[in-house]
Design a protein that fits this description.
With about 130 residues, the protein is mostly helical. It is built from 7 helices and no strands. It is flat, with a radius of gyration of 19 Å. The termini are far apart.
């Protein structure tokens, strides 16, 4: 018997608002947000989540424009590459904004990244 107050994952509606509209999830889901934004697989999840708002555009380019299929597919591919470029370019800023909205530190790093930075610091101290 799972109630909304002790859920470990957002409902589909909550997730859609979080993924597409950037809405804040309830505080009870803060651990899920932390895992989603800085846990294992956060980068592929961010890229896939960021492509959702572009789906109507991609479909529109393919269905509504006249011309050969290869031309319409090329338009979709070009727009997909452009969307991927901007998604990757602004990933850190988007992650920091989402963390801040949910009351988490904007500079929160994954455990793997934190350990890597600590190793680099230790190597620097040892060498200099």
């Amino acid at each position: 018997m799972n109630t909304r107050s002790n859920r470990s994952r957002p409902s589909f509606g909550q997730w859609l608002g979080y993924a597409v509209l950037g809405r804040k999830l309830p505080d009870s889901l803060q651990d899920w947000v932390r895992r989603d934004l800085v846990g294992p697989g956060a980068t592929p999840r961010h890229i896939l989540r960021s492509m959702i708002p572009f789906l109507p555009i991609f479909i529109g380019f393919f269905v509504l424009f006249p011309g050969a299929i290869w031309l319409r597919a090329s338009m979709v591919l070009l727009s997909l590459l452009l969307a991927l470029f901007y998604t990757a370019a602004y990933m850190d800023q988007n992650r920091a904004r989402r963390l801040e909205i949910h009351g988490l530190p904007a500079d929160l790093k994954s455990e793997k990244k934190t350990a890597e930075m600590e190793r680099e610091r230790e190597n620097y101290r040892r060498n200099h």
